[in-house]
Amino acid sequence: MNYFDNPAIGSSTLSSFIKGQDYALKEIKPTGFMENGKIWEAWLEEQFTGKKVFSDRYYFSELPKLPESKSKLDLQSIIEILEADDIQAAISGGYVMTGKGVPSLTYKARHRVLDEIKDNGYKFPVCTEIWETVTKCWENFQRAKVEINGREGGLVDLFQDSLWQQEYFWTHENSAKCRMKSDVEAYYGHDPHCGFLADVKFTANMNTFRQNWSSKYVWQQEHYLDGFRRKCETMGVESPETMFFIIAEGVAPYLIHIWEMPLSERFYLTRDYPKHLEACQKWIDAGKPSKGYKQKVVNRWGRSVFDERSVL
């Protein structure tokens, strides 16, 4: 069974459920920006593992960027074509033809992309604009240092013997069935042997990332650390108290942000994680019903506030 087809609870489902159970029902469609993140992640994985995860999926395009328009035949539909089960048939059907049966000149840029994709073995194009960004982020990545247990070392050195895209399944004490697929795992040191867990992110807007951090990634952290702790225990390895988020900022100055949350800041998250997980499992077992509404008490900025009625 494909990892993402497994019904066990992943961090995306959990964080969406915590936001509101109806959000967990929303279909996530691929976007150009999501693909840029995949390009960056695949590039890193290939550098450190030698696996052709970048080379087998992508080719270097001569186009500065993928064409976009206000019609439905835009970048989004090209990505959907590339994600199709039968990509060759999807490419063939992607051309916009005139009544005379020839490609429409109105969509010349789109047709150029489709021609180029066919000429490159139906791989996904990495346009010059995104490749320049990846190159600059990679230069900064190689300069980045990280401190673990009071010792500073290069991020590249830590990643040298790393494992990527590791799947793990477990059952929580509250009977919730869980899954995780870590971006990066590493094991370092001796007596004791210690585990290192990291997630690779790519963003063009750190303010947007901060919003996702508070509503989404903090729960990914709790979920992954719970699973990784269990995995480390079975291996006789000391599990980490924190998870590192390695965030590439895809705009100048192309910084690599290294985020971690200390245990002292995670008290309420760690406390509430099991009850959210249990509620999510009960919702899944009930057939994922839609609720249709959500109520909360807010201040003038729309932030949740304490309600005295809850203790009356």
Layout of helices and strands, plus pairs?
Blueprint (H helix, E strand, L loop, with lengths): L10 H9 L12 H18 L8 E3 L14 H8 L4 H6 L15 H12 L4 E3 L1 H16 L1 E4 L2 E4 H5 L3 E9 L5 E12 L5 E10 L2 H30 L8 E6 L6 E4 L7 H19 L27
Parallel strand pairs: 1-2, 7-8
Antiparallel strand pairs: 3-4, 5-6, 6-7, 8-9
At the first level of CATH, the class of the domain at 3-24 and 144-285 is: Alpha Beta
Rounded mean pLDDT is 89
Strand order of the largest sheet: 5-6-7-8-9
Number of β-strand runs? 9
Q: Kindly, what is the distance between the CA atoms of the first and last residues, rounded to a whole number of angstroms?
A: 50 Å
Largest beta-sheet characterization:
5 strands, mixed
Provide the low-confidence segments as ranges.
none
What letter string, H or E per element, gives the SSE order? HHEHHHEHEEHEEEHEEH
| Proportion of helical residues | 25-40%
List the defining traits of the structure above.
single chain; 312 residues; alpha/beta; 5-stranded mixed sheet; two-stranded parallel sheet
What report would you give on this structure?
It is built from 9 helices and 9 strands. The radius of gyration is 22 Å and the shape is globular. Among the domains are: 3-24 and 144-285, Lambda Exonuclease, Chain A (Alpha-Beta Complex); 75-126, no CATH class. It is α/β, with parallel strands linked by helices. The longest helix has 30 residues, at 206-235.
TL;DR of this structure?
With 312 residues, the protein is α/β, with parallel strands linked by helices. The chain is 39% helix and 18% strand.
